[in-house]
Specification:
Layout: E1 8-17, E2 22-25, H1 28-33, E3 46-49, H2 57-63, E4 71-76, E5 90-94, H3 95-100, E6 110-113, E7 116-124, E8 127-131, E9 141-151
Antiparallel strand pairs: 1-2, 1-3, 1-9, 4-9, 5-8, 6-7, 7-8
């Protein structure tokens, strides 16, 4: 039973950089082993609708045609991952914006702003340079993927992804 667009797919993954460094995984033991464990996170297979854009394009495309139990290594270039860095997403703000908030800007630090999360890439004089690009923008990523379950879309559905309203029509309960 091969994965087709619109099927619900459960899969485990290990995300690595080209040098082999693990940056994310659905396996708790792998996360602990590689120092990327997050206590608040619930580990386990990720479930998505294949072809619906719920994960980065390179991973979404790789799931199509896979079968339960199949393992695959997928190399995802930036264009099919988190994109290329956009220089327009790097802005300068006055240091005073940080001091007003009672913060000391430190290069490499991530900050939450009204416009989202940004990384401080430089502190130069009275200016702080913020980068709003995704941290994985511009990176080629390597994913080890294992499909653990596939639920076929029913024949009367179109190729549009399902919307889970949280309600079940079968027993009237939500």
């Amino acid at each position: 039973m091969k994965v087709e667009r619109g099927d619900r797919v459960k899969f485990h993954y290990v995300g690595k950089f080209e040098n082999g460094e693990v940056f994310d995984t659905s396996y708790e033991d792998v996360a602990k082993e590689h120092g990327v464990y997050v206590e608040e996170r619930e580990y386990g297979p990720l479930e998505v609708t294949a072809g619906a854009g719920e994960v980065i394009p390179g991973l979404d495309e790789a799931l199509i045609g896979m079968e339960v139990g199949e393992k695959k290594t997928v190399v995802v270039p930036p264009e099919k991952g988190y994109g290329l860095p956009n220089p327009e997403l790097v802005i300068e703000v006055p240091v005073s914006e940080f001091t007003k908030a009672g913060m000391e800007p430190v290069e490499g630090m991530y900050v939450m702003t009204d416009s989202g999360i940004a990384k401080i890439v430089a502190v130069e004089g009275d200016k702080v340079k913020l980068d709003f690009n995704h941290p994985l923008a511009g990176k080629t990523l390597v994913f080890e993927v294992e499909v653990v379950d596939v639920k076929k879309k029913s024949g009367d559905e179109s190729d549009s992804p399902e919307v889970d309203t949280g309600y079940s029509l079968e027993n009237g309960e939500s």
